[in-house]
TrEMBL record:
Residues 34-267 form the Aminoglycoside phosphotransferase domain. Pfam families: APH. It comes from Ferrithrix thermotolerans DSM 19514. It comes from the Bacteria. GO terms for molecular function: amino acid kinase activity. This is Ser/Thr protein kinase RdoA involved in Cpx stress response, MazF antagonist. Belongs to the pseudomonas-type ThrB family. Keywords: Kinase, Transferase.
Amino acid sequence: MISASTDEDWELANEALKNYDTPPSAKVELLNVSENKTYKISFDNEPKFVIRLHREGYHSRAEIQSELTWIQSIHGSNTVSVPLPILNRKDELITTIQTPSSNHRRFAVAFNFVEGVELEEDDSADHFETLGSIAAQLHNQVIAWEPPRGFRRFSWRLKDAFGANPRWGAWSKGVDKEKYPYLKEAVDNVSRDLHRYGVSSKVFGLVHADMRLSNVIWVKESYSPTLIDFDDCGYSWYLYDLATAISFFEHKDIVPELIGRWIVGYERIRKLDNADKEAIWPLVLFRRFLLLGWMQTHPEVEICKRLQGEYLDGTLHLAIRYLEHKLPSFSRSVRYP
């Protein structure tokens, strides 16, 4: 448990908890820190649900409501398993709380707790086939679904990574003058290639936008996957979900095999053409540059502390291979036993 005296967010999570039906003995424990903080709520000697405390200013109430609306739609479609949001005592999905030190409002949302196993990046490549299948099912659900009036989510377009006000920060911050020319050329080529790929409804729509193995919980009883953490969901290329699957280790030697496995799983449900497959590496680089900016603005997050300069060096290595056309092609059929 985190000390209430040193963590204002912990106090806010406890304040949010008062809006739900829980006994006084309920415990609040920090699970995860990223854009938001997620807390596990336990009582009667077992975890019951989680509370996600939203970072101030990252999402509006309407955007959070839209995320929850999509999750409910996915659940109703019986396509992909997702944890459902929980109503508070006012029969609302979003709880509004106020910071003790200011008049600023913060939002909190509760979700059913999913008991299971979280996998890491170096687990069996077979799990990437499952990721691909989950993504294809999700994309089919989106294409068949009509969002309600007032539905609002942000986008993950070129301007959101390379524009004047990149969402997660400028990728170039802290890049030394020797590395900058190579990285800038890669950014220009990624922009050109993705502009050529286009944003037609066939390739661009609502996506999860953080579909890593760590956001899939494998339920213990059935070992079936449940997709969590839709906080970054928004409008982007459908194959951006593939790029996010290899976040933080895009430069590793195993990645081409993992991508191949993901494609196999995806194409069991939804076919890709050569133009889609040729867009994979540009999208991987696009995500990599987004994360490079994110790491500059989130130094307190554990993975940023751990990777530090290593991530910039890996980005440079990947960018040079991309510029020299030395990354493997996925345009031909991918076959695995």
